[in-house]
Automatic annotation (TrEMBL):
Organism lineage string: Bacteria, Pseudomonadati, Pseudomonadota, Betaproteobacteria, Burkholderiales
GO molecular function: catalytic activity
Segments forming domain Amidase: 24-438
Gene source species: Limnohabitans radicicola
A Pfam family: Amidase
Gene3D superfamilies (UniProt xref): Amidase signature (AS) domain
Domain of life of the native organism: Bacteria
Protein name: Amidase
Length: 452
């Protein structure tokens, strides 16, 4: 893995390199085969202009490259959300709130990253612009890897690969059902989903106004904390709590069902490592998680809220949509007003019950996804592979989406060993526990570092 942002910023401040030199190195990576289908637009002039500003090395982000998911407004650029339907839309008149905060912190914007069309899938496919390869783009990929490559996870697919390959230090993205944590897990990165209200969504094209969360992926927890502080305009308190002072729970329930052997091995090994280091790990039934399937039986928030936004575009341009995306959006057309209101109320009551149960622990540990990344060829566009695509999509989203329904916060950390497919360990809790999750993540990362 490439050096993280904080280490690179320190090297710049020590005179070992410059922001301009790092910018050129990242641009070269962004244009290499490793980043095929990763960027929809590169902005080298903007990046170079930022990297050569006087005193930029003293800013929090030191002019270092940050990638922007094609979901966010950047002044003068078209926000197409990975689609062709919006390709001719007017350019944004101003930056989104998240992009504005990153600029103010000294980010160099390297370009717009590819994504699942309209952010509606956890797999990472895009039939219009191509699908990035996940960890296969890395030089240290496992021996015998299939040259077709594995899916990058979605919807923030390009954002993840831009960070994993070293083209960017922070990948700005969104997480409505796992769109940061899934690609983080499948690319060996750190992905943090903050409590949604922590970061404004202004200037980001919506999927679900109830669940959308603005957040980022990085190569280390300390970089994640820095990115969160910038995006949320708040400080995360420092903590000296040792691992043994945290009460960690594991839920032997739906979140551990259907694990493939790669994930099961990495997850159980991680728990053993943490226990050996003194972690308090208890089992928590969390039977409330079993209620989610019935609660979402009428379609859930994402289909209904996305249909409200897309209905006019679908009337005129349905044929231009990825059919797998339009099929999910159109599920929302049949939700009745009383069903939506019932869902809102049921979620509120469910969150209250979950918060009561979670009072007994500092965090829950789960696999981020129950399966490792499947081959791109197995879920490529084509009606004959639709059934497999939707099966994989459901599995990838299952664990992460529960946290969005909870209005909670969660972080995915790499927990695989060299030569294994990347696997993510997710630490999570309810709303407004962001600081505890981030403080714990530093300790977990340090304890698990020997595994990968």
């Amino acid at each position: 893995m490439k050096p993280d942002l904080i280490a690179t910023r320190q090297a710049i401040q020590q005179g070992l390199t410059t922001s301009a030199q790092v910018a050129e190195e990242c641009l070269a990576l962004a244009q290499s085969a490793a980043c095929e289908s990763v960027f929809l637009q590169l902005t080298p002039d903007s990046l170079r202009a930022t990297a050569t500003q006087v005193g930029i090395h003293n800013s929090p982000l030191a002019g270092l490259p940050v990638s922007i998911k094609d979901l966010f407004d950047v002044q003068g650029q078209v926000t197409a959300a990975g689609s062709v339907v919006l390709a001719q839309a007017p350019a944004a008149k101003r930056d989104s709130a998240a992009v504005s905060r990153l600029r103010q912190a000294g980010a160099g914007l390297i370009g717009r990253t590819n994504m699942v069309e309209f952010a509606f899938s956890g797999v990472g496919n895009n039939p219009h612009h191509g699908t990035p390869k996940a960890w296969d783009a890395l030089a240290d990929r496992p021996a015998g890897s299939d040259p077709a490559g594995h899916v990058p996870g979605g919807s923030s697919s390009g954002a993840a690969v831009s960070v994993a390959t070293g083209a960017a230090f922070i990948g700005l993205g969104s997480d409505t059902g796992g769109s940061i944590r899934i690609p983080a897990a499948l690319n060996g990165l750190v992905g943090f989903k903050n409590t949604a209200r922590r970061v404004p969504t202004l200037g980001a094209l919506p999927l679900s106004t109830t669940l959308d969360t603005v957040c980022a992926m990085t190569r280390s927890v300390r970089d994640t904390i820095l990115a969160h502080e910038i995006l949320s305009a708040r400080q995360v308190p420092a903590s000296s709590r040792p691992l043994g002072s945290y009460r960690l729970a594991i839920a032997r329930c739906v979140m551990q069902n259907d694990m493939d052997s790669t994930v099961e091995k990495a997850f159980e090994r991680s728990l053993q490592t943490l226990r050996a280091a003194g972690a308090q790990i208890v089992e928590l039934p969390l039977t409330e998680l079993e209620e989610l399937s019935a609660m979402m039986a009428t379609g859930g928030f994402s289909p209904s809220e996305s249909y409200a936004w897309h209905r006019h575009l679908l009337d005129s341009s349905a044929a231009q949509y990825d059919p797998r995306v339009s099929a999910r959006i159109l599920r929302g057309a049949n939700m009745r007003a009383h069903e939506y209101m019932d869902l809102v109320q049921a979620r509120t009551q469910w969150i209250a019950r979950m918060q009561k149960t979670l009072e007994t622990c500092d965090a829950v540990l789960s696999p981020t996804t129950p399966i490792a990344a499947p081959l791109r060829s197995s879920v490529a566009p084509g009606a004959e592979r639709d059934a497999e695509f939707f099966r994989v999509n459901g599995l990838l989203l299952r664990n992460t989406s529960a946290v969005n329904t909870l209005d909670g916060c969660a972080i995915s950390l790499p927990c695989h060993q060299p030569g294994e497919l990347p696997v993510g360990l997710m630490a999570w809790h309810g709303p407004m526990h962001d600081d505890t999750i981030l403080q714990l993540a530093l300790v977990l990362e340090d304890t698990l570092r020997g595994l990968h």
